[in-house]
Amino acid sequence: MVESEGSNQAEKRDVAPSTALEYLDPSYWDERFSREEHYEWFKDYSHFRHLMQQNVKPGSSVLELGCGNSQLCENLYDDGVTDVTCIDLSAVAVERMQKRVQSKGYKEIKVLEADMLDLPFGDECFDVVIEKGTMDVLFVDSGDPWNPRPATVARVMLMLQGVHRVLKPNGIFISITFGQPHFRRPLFDSPEFTWSVEWNTFGDGFHYFFYILKKGQRSIDGEKPGNKLPVPSINLLHEELESEDYLFRNLIDEMDC
Ligand SMILES: C[S@@+](CC[C@H](N)C(=O)[O-])C[C@H]1O[C@@H](n2cnc3c(N)ncnc32)[C@H](O)[C@@H]1O
Predict the structure, then answer these.
(1) Residue limits of the Methyltransferase domain (predicted)?
(2) Nearest Cα residue to atom 17 of ligand 1
């Protein structure tokens, strides 16, 4: 299984929620992380390493939002990006991640319990902020994706304002998601942000989006240099139909009805 090397399908079904709303419940994540060692949402690092290396240089200070039990921070470290701070709302995820990185000798990686909607960091202190599948959690009760509920928009904007605030003047926000540009750009492109918005895709069946938002790079005429790739056709592999990513998306779609 590509999305979660190290876990099998039965284990994943065991931790998957019965409704998408559970993804908004901190106790769901605590309970899940107490039983699950490792799960990689969307794809593991090998699938987007080339994109990460184009944008995150060794020596960069990185903040990862909602690390869960992903190995992203260790993968970055192995590629020379050692100044990594991970946060998660789940105390269980944080405690287990702290133990894991310590035991593996990744001593510079910091893991903190914190809410991405209320970042406990000063202004302009990170070169890069990364989220993988964490912003998507905010959308599970969004209603119509073309016209998300005001409460959803307010939460997403709170998150984005915090990310924009903690980024250095030329910092980069990387968002790895299945959220397509026509749903994400209205939020990313809000006039209060000075970042430019570009994206790439990766993945074989489902395509995932790798957004690169560069603070201070918004073009003067308001035209964004987005990578205007057509939205890829969906060509599902059998294994992906069984994955929790698919469940996550489908449950969100059901919420839209
Ligand atoms: C879909 S999982 C993604 C985990 C990991 N990024 C990955 O790629 O495998 C969402 C994660 O976000 C965390 N989370 C949810 N809401 C959060 C918030 N407001 N602040 C910080 N973390 C949050 C959850 O505890 C969970 O670990």
Answers:
(1) 57-179
(2) 89
Give the Å distance between the CA of 133 and the centre of ligand 1: 7
Mean pLDDT of 38-50: 94
Residues at CB less than 6 angstroms from ligand 1: 29, 39-41, 65-68, 70, 87-90, 93, 115-117, 132-134, 137
Domain count, the chain: 1
For the chain, the 3-state helix, strand and coil shares in percent, each to the nearest 5, are 40, 20, 45
What is the pTM for the complete model shown?
A: 0.86
CATH code (residue 181): 3.40.50.150
Burial 230-251 (b: 16+ CB within 10 A, else e): eeeeeeeeeebeebbbbbbbeb
Q: Is 129 helix (H, G, I), strand (E, B) or coil?
A: strand
